[in-house]
Amino acid sequence: MEVMDSMDRKSLAAAFPATVPVLMGYLAIGIAFGFMLQSIGYNFIWAFFMSLTIYAGSGQYLGVSLLSTCAALGTVALMTLIVNFRHLVYGLSMLEKFRGMGPRKIYMIFSLTDETYALLSSVQAPPGVDRRNFYFAIALLDHSYWIAGSVIGAVAGALLPVDTTGIEFAMTALFIVIAVEQWEGYKSHLPALLGGGATLISLALAGRENLLLPALGAIVLVLLVLRDRLEEKGEPAGPHCVKEEEKPC
Amino acid sequence: MLTPVQAIGSIAVMAAVTFLTRALPFLLFDRGDHPPKLVIYLGRVLPPAVIAMLIVYCLRDNLIALVQGPAGLAGWLPAAIACAAVAALHLWKHNNLLSIFGGTVLYMALVQSGLF
For B74-98, what is each residue's pLDDT tens digit? Predict the structure, then answer.
């Protein structure tokens, strides 16, 4: 495999200890994903290919809801865009790090999940290990944990006849966890309150089917109007989780 | 359920859009230009607003039940308890897994218990 040619054992061995927290996290969240996917009638083969090609935690939880409700492709695209919007920020702070990585750069960009981003922001390559090989090894290991977790979950879901009613709450729980992290990391809570408030109003006015677009439009508009006020607060650039290497979010 | 071809189409759209959100900064700003200040500003303030939006979106049916008063109790109380549990667990332990799993198992237990 081409991937293995450019990979050396030393880099993998050096990267593995750094990725252990992600191993634990991805196995568990991946298992939950595979389990949910199986519960709506898609087996481990689907889990494998979704995790291989999409590779996004919250994006794939969302994917389960979208598949189970037979959402239209436009809805799928819009929802995926909204959920993954934060990745735009991650890319901005990785521009320098990924320079000079050659063809592997495309994989590095593809695999820039929250957890991999958190690791890449915080870890240093040990002496004697090429920095770029080290980053690539981290990205590759994290991806493999995610695929493994989701396949295990789907197989377990098929073997264990568990009543999965209510398992879709995992997605809500995931968003609440991210919100708590953000709440603690941001000086101004105005954006979060605005996001919640605007969506509540949109739910009341536009109804349960069409609430997202008006809410998102209103949020962006008000954030633009409040720019001078919010810029003054002098937030640290990027989300809170960047600093916490042991707790990737 | 979707046909396999439709499901593959949905998954392909998810994969393409996800990759696009990751690749866009590199496509736009990788030539050494500084990203516009407006982009940096939105990149900073949008994520918390969007996550709050998605929480409301996920809970939309529970919120509709809440407005119905006592009759809608079964539609919102389990979610309210589970949401509070997730937030409390996370503030306490800061462990993503514990918070997500704990909250989800609690929610499943509540909705399957027959109490509501």
Answer: 899 999 999 999 999 999 999 877 8
Domain of B17 in residue numbering reads as 1-30
CB-CB neighbors (< 8 A) of B60 in chain A: 203, 208, 211
Give yes or no: residues B71 and B50 share one domain. yes
Are B10 and B46 in a shared domain?
no
Give the torsion sign (CA, A103, A106, A109, A111): negative
**Chain B stretch 19-58, residues whose beta carbon is closer than 8 A to a beta carbon of chain A:** 19-26, 29-30, 35, 38-58
Q: For an interface test with B, give the residue of A175, A200, A202 to mutate (most B CBs within 10 A).
A: A175
| CA diameter of chain A | 60
CA of B93 vs chain A CAs: smallest distance (Å):
11
Does the pLDDT at position A139 exceed 90? yes
CA-CA distance, A200 to A121, in Å (whole number)? Answer: 35
| ipTM of predicted complex | 0.86
By three-state DSSP, how is residue B69 classified?
helix
Are residue B54 and residue B15 in the same domain, yes or no? no
